[in-house]
Structures are given as C-alpha cells and as structure tokens.
Amino acid sequence: MYGAIEAGGTKFICLVGESPQNIIEEIRIPTTSPSETISQITQFFQKHNQATSLNGIGIGCFGPLNLRESSPDFGKLISTPKLAWEGVNLRKELLKHFNCSISIDTDVNAAAIGEYKWGAGQGLQNIVYLTVGTGIGGGAIVNGRPLRGLMHPEMGHMFIPRSPDDAFEGNCPFHQACLEGLASGSAINRRIQGEGVSISDKDSFWELETQYLALGIVNIICILSPERIILGGGVFEKRDFLFPMIRKKVQVLLNSYIQMKEIVEDINQYIVSPALGSQSGILGALALAYG
Amino acid sequence: MYGAIEAGGTKFICLVGESPQNIIEEIRIPTTSPSETISQITQFFQKHNQATSLNGIGIGCFGPLNLRESSPDFGKLISTPKLAWEGVNLRKELLKHFNCSISIDTDVNAAAIGEYKWGAGQGLQNIVYLTVGTGIGGGAIVNGRPLRGLMHPEMGHMFIPRSPDDAFEGNCPFHQACLEGLASGSAINRRIQGEGVSISDKDSFWELETQYLALGIVNIICILSPERIILGGGVFEKRDFLFPMIRKKVQVLLNSYIQMKEIVEDINQYIVSPALGSQSGILGALALAYG
Q1: Do strands B127-132 and A127-132 pair parallel, antiparallel, or not at all (unpaired)?
Q2: Could you report the per-residue pLDDT of B179-228, keeping only the tens digit for each?
Q3: What is the mean pLDDT of residues A272-281?
Q4: Is ipTM over 0.85?
Q5: Minimal CA–CA distance to B141: which of B163, B117, B170?
Q6: I need a surface site. Which of A181, B8, B151, B162 has the fewest CB within 10 A?
Q7: Taking the model in full, what pTM does it have?
Q8: Do B224 and A149 touch (CB under 8 A)?
Q9: What is the dihedral of CA A49, A62, A133, A156, to 10 degrees?
Q10: Fold: same for A2-110+279-289 and A123-273
C-alpha cells in the first residue's frame, strides 16, 4: 500500500492505494495554513497506516522546490506567491510521522510521470507535460527519467515574441510578458478584465492564445525534442477545439524544418490531451511513491 | 585505440588515439563531395587500423540527423543546406570498411559529451553546450546521458522576442527571425552586409547581440534547467567581453525568479567557455567511440 499527495495552491489531493486499479481512498483537503493542512494530511495517512503500513509516499508539489537530493533543504518550497508556504518542507514534515521513504517532485513532473507510466506517454522515453491553468508549467521525462537539472524546469517563464497587434502588457510579476504572463489563465482574466471561462469558443481571442501556446511548444520542441507533448490544465477544459488550432500553428511555425513524421504527418498523436484526464498528477505521485 | 570524427560543413577532423592525453594522429580533411571526403576518411582510419585495430569509431556530425537506433536509417543526414550530403549515412559507409562499433551523434551533442567527460561539465549531470558560429546549435547532457528525444534538439531555431528598435528581418530560410536568424554569425554578416569579424569590440551592436543570446539562454534555463551552460563557436573567438554582458543580461531577464546560487551569485561559473577550447567536439567524438 502506498500514499500519494498532489499539493496545489487551492487544494491537496491525498490518496492511498496500490495501483490506479486498486485505490482505497482519495480525499481533497483545502489549502489553508501549512500547519492546518499538514495536520489533516497526516491524520489521513495515519488512519491508513494503522490498517496496513505504507511502503512509501509520493508527493507532487507546486513550486519552485529544492529538488537536490544532496541538499539539507531537499523538498523545501523556495519562493512562492503563497507566502505562508514559503520555506515549508512537506517531505520533512511527513518524515516526522511516517517511517517510510518519501519521494517528492514538482506537480508537473508528477503529471509527466503519471502519463509516462499509465497514460499518453506509455512506450515513449521522452515526453513533456505542459499545463495551462492559473499559471503555465511544464514537466518532462528524458531518457525515461524525470528532468530536474539545476532546480527543475520553469517552462512558463520562457520568452516568446509578442504578436505585433497585441497591446496587453502581460501579467507575470517577474517577467511581465513571458509565456505565462501572456497566455496563462490569470493572464487571460487580466487581459479581458473578467473571467476567461466566459470567452466564447468562436472568439478571435483564441487565435492569439493558441499562437502564444504554439510558440511555447515550438521552443520546447527545439530545446527538448520530446517524442510527445501532453497539454493539460484548466484553459483546455471543455475546449477541445484549441488542439487543432495549436497543432496547425506549430506546423506552420516549424515550417517543415524538423522533418519527423510525428510532427509533419501525425501531429494529432504528437500534441495530445492527458490520457489520465485530471488524474495525471495524483497517479504520478503514486508512481513516485514506488521509489 | 579508437577513431574519432568531427564532421563539419567546411572540414572533417579525424583523430586516432586512446585518450585526450594519448593521441596518435589528428588530420583535417576539407568537406567536398561525399564520395571524395568519405574515401579520404576511410584511408586515414585504414592506415591506423592496419597498425593497431580500432576498437570503435565515434562521429560527431552536422545535422539534422536520424538518431533513432531502431531505424534502418540510423545515422543518415536528413535535410541539410549542403545538398550533396543530404541522405548520406556516414556511419553506414564506414561500417562497410571497419569491423568495429561506430557511434554517431550531433556535432553539438559530441561537444557536450567532450565537456561532460573532460571539460567544463566534469562532475555535473546536466549541461548544455551552445555554439554560436555560422549557425546556432545546442547539445545537452541530461541525467548523465546525451539528449536526443524525437530527433535531437535544434536550439538555434527557438523563437525569441525581437528588440523593438531592430529593423533586421532575420535570415533563417525556415523561420526568418528565430534565434539563429537574428543572432548567428551568418545573421550578423547579413545584418551588416559585411564580415562580422570587422565589428569593433566597442560597437553598440554587441548590446543587441548579447540580448538575443541571453534570451535564448533564459529559454534554455526555463525549459531544460541545466547545471551549467558552455558557450562556444566562432562569434566568441577573441571576444571574451561578450561573456560578462551575456551573464548580466541573463540575470536581468530572469529577475531573481530562479533563486539558485549558481545563477544569482555564481553566474561566472554558470555560463562559461569550453574548457577544451576548440577540441570539445572531436574529443566528444572520441568519448563516443568508447561506446
């Protein structure tokens, strides 16, 4: 039996199970203060740990995170807009209560791991999971292993060319008009001074939005060369029409330079939705728990 | 004894040796027609193979290349501006003459491998080698292994924001104003309608050039999260002053978002010259020959 946590800015999902087919219990805990939230998580896992002892716990966590296993601060949240959580080390807190191995990675790396193991990345060795929600983030599997490197990718903060007729200045507090500042859910809300969910599917805004996302995807292809790109996050919910728009723009931007069948012919299988739907992250955390 | 080849657009470097400290012979062959050049390479290695049989040959080759080991076309040059070489499979040609394992990777992955094994990447597991010469290309080591993925990275072709006061339209035949189209050696020549080597170190042009390169490096950091970035290629030759300019602009662009000591404090050791100088590629090919 294993424990899994998907730690997000608004809620924590906690799960106990053996595999995606054998899940004992899954709960949602609102993200409040670190002490309150961590205490609720601990209670949930302690209850199960008394029944059957947990062999491991995996955590997919919002970031930025310290992911250097050799560092004394391994697992610690670095700077985050959720100020109360800055400096919190979820892994260390849980190690006080549970005598099993506890693995941690970013939420997006966890989603990439979930899709790699049980979803749209099965059989491949190099995939990217890109989420476009409140923010934009990317996780990656390279040669079958999660990509961390110096810290971990921060794909939302790459710079892309702004469309010449776009007057919106961008809303990233660090970089203003980076990809996240131009095209995330929060950027959309700021741009229209309202709620992005209200934008009609026919609105020409989606031409601009998919152009920015396609530029981001092209940069990911040029730098990371993934075998498949999985797009998740709130902006795509009930908006399947965005996929053909993005795929076409990626092809136009690349202009047949990368002559791989996967991109030139089979792009419908190259840029895809998560096969695990909204479960990529929590199931990836379960895979992380296996160690 | 091993053989190594650095295959470039103007010349091939061929080497026979055991290690960087024990090199038997190194020659340069001009890149002419495939049949002529390959015949000269073959003669060079045959001569040595008769003395001591070669245990392996490593090739770092210009691209794009097919690097799928499972493909019947593994090692084949895909589209290349050097049209006579399109479709040539250097590895397969050499296998007709030599009964040893022959490894191949891109020229920039070979350079990354060389620096990883014997140069500025020693002790690290995630590095990028970026060359800014006639074109712009990047190779990478991730978790200690070369990054290939779907094909291999084509870092020069990422898109970056153009400076608002820059009227140059870019010279990439595929993407016009991608990084390579704006900032490569050939883009510089086109921009000034002359030879980039003549540009004075004091020229304000270098502010623009280093801004574009810094944007490319920031995108590499956001997407690939390397532990070190090694900058090589003709544009940096006798131009050490570009390094502090690039480092400063990378810090300004990232704006302390990635709070890692390596970038915020120790950027002089984060963005560096190749420790192997102009030998990164050919020594990386030698490392490839070890298999």
Answers
A1: unpaired
A2: 999 999 999 999 999 999 999 999 999 999 999 999 999 999 999 999 99
A3: 97
A4: yes
A5: B117
A6: B8
A7: 0.97
A8: yes
A9: -150
A10: yes
Chain A interface includes B253 (CB < 8 A):
yes
Burial of B163 (0-12, 13-18, 19+ CB in 10 A): middle
Class in CATH terms, B2-110+279-289: alpha beta
Q: Tens digits of per-residue pLDDT, B39-62?
A: 999 999 999 999 889 999 999 999
Could you tell me which of A171, A83, A181, A166 has the C-alpha nearest to residue A136? A181
- List the single residue in A with minimal CA-CA distance to B126: A149
Whether residue B151 lies within 8 A of chain A, CB to CB, comes out as yes
Architecture category of domain A123-273 in CATH: 2-Layer Sandwich (3.30)
Give B134-179 pLDDT, tens digit per residue.
999 999 999 999 999 999 999 999 999 999 999 999 999 999 999 9
- Residue numbers in A near B156 (CB within 8 A): 222
Domain ranges of chain A: 2-110+279-289, 123-273
CA distance B124 to chain A (A): 9
Q: Report the pLDDT value the prediction gives residue B129, as an integer from 0 to 100.
A: 98
Q: Alpha carbon of B238 to those of A249, B111, B204, B214, B274: distances in Å? A: 40, 20, 17, 19, 13
Q: Tokens standing for B16?
A: 């026979």
First to last CA, chain A: 13
Report the alpha-carbon distance of residue A236 to residue B196 in Å, rounded: 46
* Interchain CB distance below 8 Å, B220 and A223: yes
> CB A257 to CB B157 under 8 A?
yes
CB-CB under 8 Å, B142 with A225? no
